[in-house]
Design goal:
It contains seven helices and twelve strands. By secondary structure, it is an alpha+beta fold.
Length: 258
């Protein structure tokens, strides 16, 4: 036990020394002003991040992964530093909206709950919180437009079957597991693949100061409030769809009833 404790202490000291020797940058690509080693990244968080860290060049099970609290120009941030073969490297992933290279902790995590094989599992998204909030603003209008102006019958039928979409969606930011992708795809009249909206069920972000997750509201800006307002909204939308696409809408409603 004494030997084990000494070994662990030596390993921790070695990791801290390695981390102190490398440059860690903030969101503006400026060197951070402070570094404080928090400890190993938990197995739970590593598992979530593994949905994006799929290459051995990124992370393998034998790598050490250390959380480091830093101070940057925009405030606190948490770097994840990989320890491998006596060297330290910060893990950075691209936000697909801002194109910034960011630590995994700066990216939003998401969860589905719609019957797919990855239901209930947390995934690391492709977007940071700042740009998610901006992106969320126009997506409800986008969904309404797609429903009211479908590209083909197959898209229309599947969108009606999926039902109202009140939470944020985007197949680039919140990709489905490979085995679930076909559930949210149809082929249009020209043989082209059309990807359907798949709204997330929940979002969260890591709070560096609290060292805990904080929930993020997934509701699209402009969507009706939870409760009777949503029931009224969808009933009115169905009536509008009956006016615009009477035959297709009746077919969808009959299929849903069966």
């Amino acid at each position: 036990l004494f030997y084990s404790c000494n070994t662990m202490a030596a390993a921790a000291a070695s990791s801290a020394s390695l981390i102190d020797s490398i440059d860690l940058l903030d969101e503006d690509e400026q060197p951070v002003t402070t570094k404080a080693v928090i400890g190993d990244v938990s197995a739970e968080r590593r598992e979530v991040w593994s949905t994006r860290l799929t290459s051995p060049d990124d992370l393998v099970p034998t790598d050490g992964l250390v959380a480091v609290k830093c101070t940057g120009g925009r405030g606190p941030l948490e770097h994840a530093v990989r320890i491998r073969d006596g060297s330290a490297t910060p893990l950075l992933l691209e936000c697909k909206v801002s194109y910034e290279e960011l630590p995994p902790a700066a990216l939003v995590e998401y969860q589905f709950a719609d019957g797919g094989g990855d239901d209930g599992k947390w995934h690391l998204s492709m977007v940071c919180l700042e740009y998610l909030l901006a992106f969320r603003a126009g997506k409800f209008a986008d969904w309404e437009k797609r429903l009211l102006q479908p590209t083909c019958k197959a898209e229309f039928r599947r969108m009606v079957a999926i039902g109202p979409v009140y939470n944020v969606f985007d197949h680039h930011m919140f990709p489905s597991a490979e085995e679930d992708k076909s559930l949210f795809e149809v082929t249009d009249d020209n043989g082209r693949k059309v990807i359907l909206p798949r709204p997330v069920a929940a979002l969260r972000i890591w709070d560096v100061e609290k060292q805990a997750y904080e929930d993020v509201d997934p509701t699209l800006d402009g969507a009706p409030a939870v409760g009777p307002e949503r029931e009224t909204y969808w009933a009115n939308m169905i009536e509008k769809l009956k006016e615009n696409f009477p035959e297709e809408t009746e077919e969808c409603l009959a299929a849903a009833a069966n």
